[in-house]
């Protein structure tokens, strides 16, 4: 390893207490998405904290307010030239602290109460507890420390890094990434979704391809279907003709069951398995004046995770074929299919410099070999990648299955390791200008 890289890692070790203090300040600074808590002040205070750090680093930034009091932060360190343009994305909003019951990702037990103040940033047994500790404040703190270490050591990156800290990720990004993409050019060559990427041992039982030091190079796509089934206005004194809408919807679900079972039993060679890939998420019907009246229509909503090796068009065709066959079988209860949401799978080749550069950074920073894997899920940046279609990796130490959890926390060692890997990865990806 070069002397410069060693100096960068040494700087992070020397300033690890500053990094821990920064994360503590971020957790204490509440940034709950107002969709979960109407009394929340949103992400404004967190944005001010982050921009203050960029001011200290001498990195220019701008804010773009998608909704009052909810500024997105975009900070850009321009390179000297000759290197790629990198997008780094990690969001500022968090889930609420109150989530009802939760399955502990370490023990599998059902828990209901925090053992620490969710906004107190308590440190216990080498871990910092609090909402946002894993999702997503530790990656923001680690990236800020990585940039500080590079600049303190006089590193001049050839490529340009743009850090986007968005709002509203937890509810789909209407005021965040979706808004930003309408305001500024997203002209990037590749992206890092700065996010924790480890799983607890219990979590790895459900996501078996995951190892340790996970470099995630693939994310599932997503399709949401709404199928409306119409019903007949049945009455006890008239001849039976067809079915009521809810009855017909149940018959349709019976015919969809083989497709759902096949989707849920499929093991993707890159992503493995995870939660069931295809589920019914809602059944709604038309208003009725009395309990015994038949609904005139019934909507069935299904969500389907589409792995990287599954053709999204073929996935839609499977469902449409069932609907077409149903309409032939039950002409008095026609069903119509609408795809109301669709995100394509995102895959970065294992030999892409984004992946291999990150592998080298992990090797040099922590002395371990990375697990290069896919994630059986879409993630916060997935909708953005559906439009950008650029190589992307997800990486960060800390447990991804602590997101939104009761007793969310990050191991302090994991926080420091993440900063080290980010710093070396930026040098690998963007290149370093030789000193004059």
Structure characteristics:
Aminopeptidase, single chain, 6-stranded mixed β-sheet, 2 domains, 436 residues, 4-stranded antiparallel β-sheet, alpha+beta, 18 strands, Alpha-Beta Plaits, 11 helices
Secondary structure layout:
Layout: H1 3-14, H2 16-28, H3 44-57, E1 61-67, E2 70-77, E3 85-89, E4 102-103, E5 110-111, E6 123-124, E7 127-129, H4 137-152, E8 160-165, H5 177-183, E9 190-194, H6 201-206, E10 214-219, E11 221-230, H7 245-265, E12 278-285, E13 297-306, H8 312-329, E14 335-343, E15 346-347, H9 353-366, E16 371-375, H10 382-388, E17 392-395, E18 409-411, H11 412-430
Parallel strand pairs: 3-8, 3-9, 9-17, 10-16
Antiparallel strand pairs: 1-2, 2-8, 4-5, 6-7, 7-18, 10-15, 11-13, 11-14, 12-13
Helix pairs in contact: 1-4, 1-11, 2-4, 3-4, 4-11, 7-8, 9-11
Report on the architecture of this protein.
The protein is α+β, with helices and mostly antiparallel strands and 436 residues long. It folds into two domains: 3-220 and 346-430, Aminopeptidase, CATH 3.40.630.10; 223-339, 2-Layer Sandwich (Alpha-Beta Plaits). It contains eleven helices and 18 strands. It has a six-stranded mixed β-sheet with strand order 1-2-8-3-9-17, sandwiched between helices. A four-stranded antiparallel β-sheet has the order 12-13-11-14. The chain is elongated and about 90 Å long. 47% of the residues are buried.
